[in-house]
Design a protein that fits this description.
heterodimer, A: about 65% strand, B: mainly alpha
Chain lengths: ~450, ~150
């Protein structure tokens, strides 16, 4: 938990430096109290606190600090073998320039750049260059499930891209990771965004394992439309298991638990049609083709959704048609949300029907209901309960109480005033997350 | 010219070129936050007509957002705090994302309903879909059985 100390120290240091000028603080506290039972009958009651906030210097808006983390204490037993647990999700300082999208992040952060989708303790920098070029680089110690000590562990890399606004972006990226000083990952990638016509939008990437000198995967997605109210989406991917599952901290991904020679190719697509601004319907399909096993699996179905300011509803029906008994099932889902003043009610029903019984069970059911109440413009409380019957549980009942509080204040400086709850404008990104635990209705587009 | 000398020359040329291109760059930085609040699943094409129309959050957004995040994380950060991504993409997590948002069934969230049984099916179907989130991180719970 030393990183928590480092993060808090960093925050207080920044706070001191910010006191010369005002700064904005915005964030959210989410508290969850869950009640659930294990297969052996042990009942757990973990209490979670998730805290996230961000500070921005109010004047120049060029320096900010972002923090996110959670802590859990079990009120009854030892959930997951520990009475308490926690995680520092991110804590980093951002320094931005007003030109060139030049920025530097330092601390615990997440890097998404081409082949990299990594959480690191280190630094990340990026900037625009002349001619549509951008360059990004990062380096630090990887944050992964500990298999050994972090001594000698490092990860670094970068991405260079070039693009023409509205037409294309082409990127090349590189990642190198060392464990105990030895190379365990060397990945190179190309990524692409291309909009050759107004009605066509291509996204994709290919990743190459530079240690074994072979492709790891290709993933591409093409969007067609809209043609009136119709949008079509096609996707294709190929994963080479031997190159893809190279470094893992979980035995489930080790060979021979996974056949190293297998290559799986997926082809799929979807079509969505908006009948009105509130009602949409869609069909989707995905085919899995296994080169070594010589088998295929097909997943297909249809969806119908309704959404309005007063609530929403959805219906989905899907079928999995695969080469084994377990890959033969039907699934259905029906949900509804109704908002009545400050109260919202949610009901969600799911059913999976297995063609061959698993543990003597042919049908798995999950039913959940939730009631939410807006205590104020900043605070909201939700109570939910879930009932399940499936191949692992004859009866699985779990419930949760959620309290969400959003805060927003202007601090520091000579003319600083702390905003009272409800008086502040919601901060973008904290409040405007689609979903029911959004306590504050965001300001509508004009 | 030996290999070391070539590497030094190439490095100097590359760094110099980057500095020149940096010095000549005139783009104005994106704001720290999107200047206008957006609600729910935003359609960027309502206001923008350039490449940002590709960021429309429609029904197919769930299958496309990973590409956009890998190419322009900075744009995502205009509207989304890091905590939004961390709800699903975390190094260490005990609560399923869908458990945190039982009151938002319209959101596409992984592992809804009975996932203890379903993960055995999905894992056989396409283990590569599990790997990005659980391959090297967020797998302490998995280790209870997968020792």
């Amino acid at each position: 938990m030393n990183l928590w100390s480092v993060a808090l120290s960093l925050f207080f240091l920044l706070s001191v430096s910010f006191t010369a000028s005002a700064f904005d603080l915005s964030g959210q506290s989410r508290t969850y109290l869950q009640s659930r039972q294990d297969v052996d009958g042990t009942r757990y009651m973990p209490l979670y606190e998730y805290l996230s906030f961000r500070t921005d210097s109010a004047s120049a808006n060029t320096v900010s600090f972002s923090f996110g983390g959670w802590y859990r204490y079990d009120l009854r037993d030892e959930a997951f073998g520990k009475k308490s647990a926690g995680d520092l999700q991110y804590a980093y300082v951002t320094i931005r320039k007003e030109k060139g999208n030049t920025m530097l992040n330092l601390g615990r952060l997440v890097v998404n750049e081409g082949v990299a989708s990594e959480q690191i303790d280190g630094g990340y920098a990026r900037t625009d260059l002349k001619g549509g070029l951008t360059i990004a680089a990062y380096g630090g110690s990887p944050v992964e499930t500990a298999g050994d000590t972090r001594s000698g562990d490092s990860v670094y890399g970068g991405r260079v891209s070039q693009g023409v606004t509205g037409l294309y972006t082409l990127g090349v990226s590189y990642l190198q990771e060392k464990n105990d000083g030895k190379d365990v990952r060397k990945e190179e990638g190309i990524d692409l965004w291309l909009k050759p016509f107004g009605k066509m939008d291509i996204l994709g990437r290919s990743t190459y394992n530079a240690l074994s000198k072979a492709w790891m995967q290709h993933q591409y997605n093409v969007l067609f439309g809209p043609f009136g109210n119709l949008r079509l989406n096609a996707e294709a991917s190929r994963v080479y298991y031997k190159e893809y599952f190279t470094v893992s901290t979980l035995s489930a991904f080790d060979f021979p638990n996974i056949d190293p020679n297998e290559t799986v190719t997926t082809l799929g697509g979807s079509a969505d049609y908006a009948f009105t601004t509130s009602v949409t319907a869609g069909v989707d399909f995905k085919n899995y083709d296994y080169a070594v096993a010589g088998t295929t699996a097909k997943y297909y179905g249809a969806r119908l959704a309704y959404a309005s300011g007063g609530g929403g509803a959805g219906l989905a029906v899907h079928r999995m048609d695969g080469p084994t008994d377990r890959l033969q099932y039907d699934e259905q889902r029906l949900y509804g949300v109704k908002k009545i003043s400050k109260i919202d009610l949610t009901l969600d029903l799911m059913h999976v029907g297995y063609q061959q019984a698993i543990n003597g069970v042919n049908n798995a059911y999950t039913t959940s209901g939730a009631v939410g109440y807006a205590l104020s413009s900043k605070a909201r409380i939700v109570a939910d309960v879930e009932y399940g019957k499936n191949p692992d549980f004859d009866r699985d009942v779990r419930s949760m109480l959620t309290f969400v509080y959003t805060f927003d204040a202007k601090l520091g400086g000579t003319d600083a005033k702390t905003r009272t709850a409800g008086a502040g404008k919601p901060a973008v990104g904290i409040h405007c997350q689609e979903g029911g635990t959004n306590p504050v209705p965001c300001e509508k587009k004009k | 010219m030996n290999r070391a000398a070539k590497t030094v020359v190439l490095s100097i040329v590359t760094v110099t070129s980057v500095f020149i291109l940096f010095a000549c760059a005139t783009t104005k930085s994106l704001p720290a936050r999107h200047p206008m609040e957006v609600q729910g699943m935003p359609l960027c094409s309502d206001c923008h007509t350039d490449g940002r129309t590709s960021l429309d959050h429609r029904q197919d957004w769930n299958s496309r957002h990973k590409f956009q995040a890998a190419q322009q994380q900075r744009t995502c950060e205009l509207c989304h705090a890091q905590s939004f991504c961390a709800d699903c993409h975390a190094n260490k997590e005990e609560l399923k994302p869908s458990d945190k948002y039982k009151d938002a069934p319209q959101r596409t969230m992984p592992h809804r309903g009975d996932y203890l049984n379903q993960h055995k099916i999905d894992g056989k179907l396409n283990p590569a879909s599990c790997f990005p989130c659980h391959g090297r991180q967020n797998n302490e719970r998995c280790k209870t059985c997968h020792k």
